[in-house]
Amino acid sequence: MSKDLMKIFQKHSDILPNLVIREAIDLMGPKATKEDAQKVADLLVETYKNAMVNAGECVGLVSAESIGEPGTQMTLNTFHLAGVAEVQVTTGLPRIIEIFDAQKTIKTPMMEIYLNSPHNKVENIKKFAAKIKETKFGEFVSEFSLDIFDHKLTATLNKEILDDHSLTAKDLTKSFKTKAKGFTVSCSETVITFVQKSTKPEDLKDLYNLKQKIRGVKVKGLKGLVQVLPVKRGEEYIVLTAGTNLKDVLELEEVDTTRTVSNDIHEIFAVLGIEATRQAVINEVYKVIESQGLNVDIRHIMLVADIMTAGGAVKGITRYGVVSEKASVLARASFETPVTHLINAALEGEVDKLTSVVENVMINQPVPLGTGLPGLITKLK
Question: Which of 73, 141, 152, 264 registers the highest number of CB atoms within 10 A of its CB?
C-alpha cells in the first residue's frame, strides 16, 4: 500500500521536501486509503505554500526582531538545570551571547553521553562514569614531604582511594615516565619516592616544581572530563559531564555515537564538521529559548545558524565574524567602529552598490524590500 501512497505524494515532490513526505506516510500508517492520501497531500501542499515567505520579505530584520525581543525578557537566573544540582549550565541571555558570538572558550562546557545497551543500565552506568572521569595524581595523595638535604620528594598515598579505583602505587608510577626526567622513581605499597639525580643546590628549584607538576598528572580517564554524573532519562541512564572531550568519547565502544552531544560548537566543528555545527547552533539556541518558556519560530534561528556557517567555518555575529564580510561599507560601518571601516574603504577605493537595507536607510532612499523592490513603469499617452 505504501508504494501507491508514495506515488500520490511523489507528484508533489517539486513542492514538498522529502522529509515532510516521509513523515506524512509514516503518520498515516498502513491502513490509509488512496483517498486519504490524496486529501493529506492536497492539504500539505496548501499549508506548505502558505508557510513560504513572500518575495521581498525582510527576513533578516524579522529574524533579528523575533530573537532580540524575547531576549530582553529572559530571566537572569542564568544557572539552573532542572532536577540536577551538581552540574551547572549557563542558560538564558549569557548562553545565547556565547553561541551567537561563537566564543572559543565557553563558561560551562558539558556533554550528554548516551550509551548502547547493556551499558545504559543502572548496574553498569557507575562503572562507565568512573572509567571516563579524569583522575589526577593529586587526588590519591594524602601528603607530600620534601627532603632538601637528600634531594628527595616523598608522596604518601591514600590506600582507600587507591582501592576504590582498583589501582596500585606501581600503576601510578607508570604515568610519570615523561614528567619526572632527572629523577629516580621508586615505590612501596603506599609511598612513591622521587630522588633527584643531580645534587647541585641550584637544581633544588626543580624539586619544588616537580611537586606541582605531578599533582596535575592524569592517571586515568579522559582529559577534560572533570566531573561526571549518571542521570536517568526515560528508560535509560546517561552520563552528564562537566568539561568536554567529544573526540575521545566517540571512540569508546560503549558510547552511542548517534546521540552523544557536546555544547561546545567549536569542538563539534572540529570533530563532526560544518553541517553538524549548524544543527548544534539551532539545537542549543532553541534549548535556551524553550527553557525560558519563550516562543520563537525555529526558522528565525535556522537563518542565523545558516549565516554563521555558510562560509564553511564557524563565524560569530561580531565585527570580526559575519559583519566583516559584508560587501557594503556603510553596512559594516553601521555595526561597530565606523571610522576604521570608512577610512579603510576610502584608502582602497571601495564602491557601495546600495543593494541592502541599512545603507539605503542611511542615505534616505526607499529600501529594496517589499514595495520598494519592483520598479514601476507607466506608459504616458
Answer: 264
- Give burial (CB, 10 Å; 0-12/13-18/19+) of 367: middle
Number of neighbouring beta carbons within 10 Å of residue 152? 16
Whether 237 contacts 230, CB under 8 Å: yes
Inter-residue contact 317 to 304 (CB < 8 Å)? yes
Extract the C-alpha cell encoding 15: 513542492
- Calculate what percentage of the chain has a pLDDT beyond 70: 95
Interior angle at CA 326, CA 323 and CA 331, nearest 5: 80
Cα separation, 188 vs 378, in Å, equals 99
Whole-number Å distance between alpha carbons of 190 and 172: 11
For residue range 269-279, list pLDDT tens digits in order: 999 999 999 99
pTM: 0.80
> Quick count: other Cβ atoms within 10 Å of Cβ 112?
15
Digit-coded pLDDT (tens) for 326-367: 889 999 999 889 999 999 999 999 999 998 888 999 999 999
Residues 223 and 134: their CA atoms lie apart, in Å, by: 6
Task: Give the CA distances from residue 350 to residues 341, 342, 345, in Å, rounded to whole numbers and listed in that order.
Answer: 11, 9, 5
- Does position 212 have pLDDT exceeding 90, yes or no? no
* Chain Cα centroid distance, residue 336: 27
